[in-house]
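I have been asked to look over a protein record a colleague put together. Alongside the sequence sits a line of tokens, each denoting a local backbone shape. I have pasted the whole thing underneath without changing anything:
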Amino acid sequence: MKIGVVGCGGRMGQMLVREILSTPGCGLAGGTERDGGPLVGRDVAEIAGLEPAGVLATDDPVALFAAADAVIDFTSPAATERHAALAAQSRTVLVIGTTGLSPAQQANIAAAATHTAIIQSPNMSVGVNLLLGLVERVAATLGPDYDIDILEMHHRRKVDAPSGTALGLGRAAAAGRGVALEDVWCKVRDGHPGARPVGEIGFATMRGGDVIGDHTVCFAGDGERVELTHKASGRQIYAKGAVRAALWAGGRVPGLYSMRDVLGI
């Protein structure tokens, strides 16, 4: 499978390039960078710290989507929205790891998925997606007598909060209870918010240092507390999951899939 990377010069982009080139059955279709950026025209593999592969970075995503069987996108919400439209036009598999999309942007991605296979997940880690399944099951089993809070911490440069993974965990907990997360979430507590409403799902956000990603879901009941935690010690887990998703999607019918589909969870 020929796989391309948009934003190939970023930290995740470079990891994705290295993962593609080290995975059997994969070939590097190319990579893009921003218009006129300093990496345009350089060898994509060389940018990632590898021996040159004869594939040069461009600022033309249209050409990349035309040349690739699949494209992996860990960029920004606005860019991902544009890339989804290109994937729909070229019928190219798109793997999305971008978080922080607006409802309108998400709706446009869902529309693009009627034309091609799109795999989207707030976190591409195998461990986190196993955690999503566990959270949904535990929430369904324990019921509303247990209060749910989700604590997440990331490095100081992360721009969205709560993290996409934290929101995904909240949606898993809400699904276990048969409710919509937007109807029960509390993203911020400040001042005197009063007693906690029954069924509320709360979020707490921490930012600092170089933390890659820590997430804990706490189920607090009378007399006991259950905590489910995932801590990432390296970003390579996200690259591995994304390449695995691209390979899985080859030949799939159009649709919006998740990593839970990829993993059969």
